[in-house]
């Protein structure tokens, strides 16, 4: 299989000697064509550094990068033709309209085509505002024009670095829907770097979590969260319930309820154990942790 992105043993070291910073440390991953791939990590984890290396904006210290099976060192034309990116926000000329900004970017990149510019304006739903000056745009409008700029060359791979920064909840939702449309309707591969875990959880097919430049976990969201469900049990008296259950289950007492680390299938057994001991059971709820819960637990282990 030819992957849209293939990273093998990637390293990036800034500085030398005792002051050297290992920003990316032995990072390997593959992204299949057509996926929306989430790239997660706390600030300083190495996400932006990795993206800059993929785009050829920064050289790796060691390791290999391939785009669509081609080594990055041989991929200058491929980068121009098949890759689009929005990195560090949309930088627009405020005195030009959105359309004029796109025309300037297209001419600078050597891919000027009025029809394509009209198409990308339509894709990002900016037809009504395309001829307004950029200085009058909201942050969300600027981001949409930035994404349109990344699509001008009709790339197969689109790299988006924090595309929802500074957006309100409605703007975040609109960008999320746009990203899914790019993959599902326009058949793009998306590498999405973001710290908004709730949005990543809703839009991505697979995710990679990195910290301190290293890969921590990688997989589909369902795979990562599988087997981490737990039960919330409201019962009284709580002390007696703890005494009954603690020999059999890992549990945590939280205020007036118990958090029991176990499969949802054990709920009937737990209820029977408690009722047979004359403990009142008010509620048993199955909980599945969010990607945010998983991310915080995973990154905390590597601090």
Automatic annotation (TrEMBL):
ABC transporter domain residues: 5-237
Keyword hit for ATP-binding: yes
InterPro entries to which the protein is assigned, alphabetical: AAA+_ATPase, ABC_transporter-like_ATP-bd, P-loop_NTPase
Keyword Repeat among record annotations: no
Keywords, comma-separated and alphabetical: ATP-binding, Nucleotide-binding, Transport
Domain of life the protein comes from: Bacteria
Xref: Pfam families: ABC_tran
Any one GO molecular function term: ATP binding
Family listed: Belongs to the ABC transporter superfamily.
Protein name: ABC transporter ATP-binding protein
Organism, as annotated: Phototrophicus methaneseepsis
């Amino acid at each position: 299989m030819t992957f849209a992105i293939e990273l093998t043993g990637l390293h990036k070291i800034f500085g030398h000697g005792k002051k050297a910073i290992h920003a990316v440390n032995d990072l390997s991953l593959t992204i299949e064509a057509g996926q929306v791939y989430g790239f997660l990590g706390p600030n300083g984890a190495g996400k932006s550094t990795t993206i800059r290396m993929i785009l050829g904006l920064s050289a790796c210290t060691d390791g290999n990068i391939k785009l669509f099976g081609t080594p990055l060192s041989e991929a200058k034309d491929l980068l121009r033709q098949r890759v689009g990116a929005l990195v560090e926000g949309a930088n627009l000329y405020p005195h030009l309209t959105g359309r004029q900004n796109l025309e300037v970017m297209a001419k600078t990149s050597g891919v000027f085509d009025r029809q394509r510019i009209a198409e990308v304006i339509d894709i990002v739903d900016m037809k009504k505002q395309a001829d307004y000056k950029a200085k009058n745009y909201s942050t969300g409008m600027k981001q949409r024009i930035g994404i349109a700029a990344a699509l001008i060359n009709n790339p197969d791979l689109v790299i988006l670095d924090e595309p929802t920064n500074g957006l309100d909840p409605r703007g975040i939702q609109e960008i999320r829907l746009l990203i899914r449309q790019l993959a599902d309707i326009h058949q793009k591969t998306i590498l999405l770097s973001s710290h908004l875990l709730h949005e990543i959880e809703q839009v991505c097919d697979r995710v990679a979590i990195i910290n301190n430049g290293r890969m921590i976990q990688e997989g589909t969201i369902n795979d990562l969260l599988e087997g981490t469900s737990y039960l919330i049990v409201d019962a009284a008296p709580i002390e007696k319930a703890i005494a009954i259950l603690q020999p059999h289950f890992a549990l945590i007492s939280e205020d007036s309820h118990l958090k029991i680390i176990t499969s949802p299938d054990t709920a009937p057994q737990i209820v029977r154990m408690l009722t047979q001991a004359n403990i009142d059971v008010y509620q048993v709820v199955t909980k599945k942790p969010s990607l945010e819960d998983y991310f915080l637990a995973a990154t905390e282990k590597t601090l």
